[in-house]
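Lab notebook page, bench 4
Experiment: in silico fold of construct C2
Operator: M.H.
Input chain length: 175 residues
Purpose: comparison with the prior construct
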Amino acid sequence: MDLSTAASWAEIIGLVTILGAAIYSWFQIQELKAARDSAAALSLSELMERPDFAAGLVQLTYQPDDIDGWEKFHAYHGDDWAKAFSIMTTWESLGALVHRGDLDFHLVYDLYSGLIVHHHNKCLQFIISERSLGGDTRFEWFTWLAERISEYETSSTPPKAAHLEYINWKPPTRR
């Protein structure tokens, strides 16, 4: 084999190697994305298992609609005000993460949509009061997320409750 032929073969082998590496990298990136999505889903589902989180959910769920400032918020929730407030900041964080694409909207929707919208309605007077003191950035992502969920529910056919939507679901056969 002469030098020219060997060089041609070397170029072909190099090209195949680079192409193979690119294809392998693409599959690896897809696997990493799937792993990240699974970790995010697990992390979101674990929120409900925390006693303080559950207590805060209950507090906000049954909070009166007319709480319009820190004094009323603190008076209603008493020593547990931080638990209720942490729910609001959790919804705030989820809104920013969904907007950035770090969390899937549909995952957040499936797990928390009803609570987010309900809590936003319950806390709206408090949020408006906070914005009058500190500007429009107070709970901006909480509001954004609640509005996106409400828009989604009115602009498309949202899924029914899981126990109704998937009444005929069967687990996949084990391999």
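Observations: The chain has a mean pLDDT of 89. The radius of gyration is 25 Å.
Next step: discuss at group meeting.
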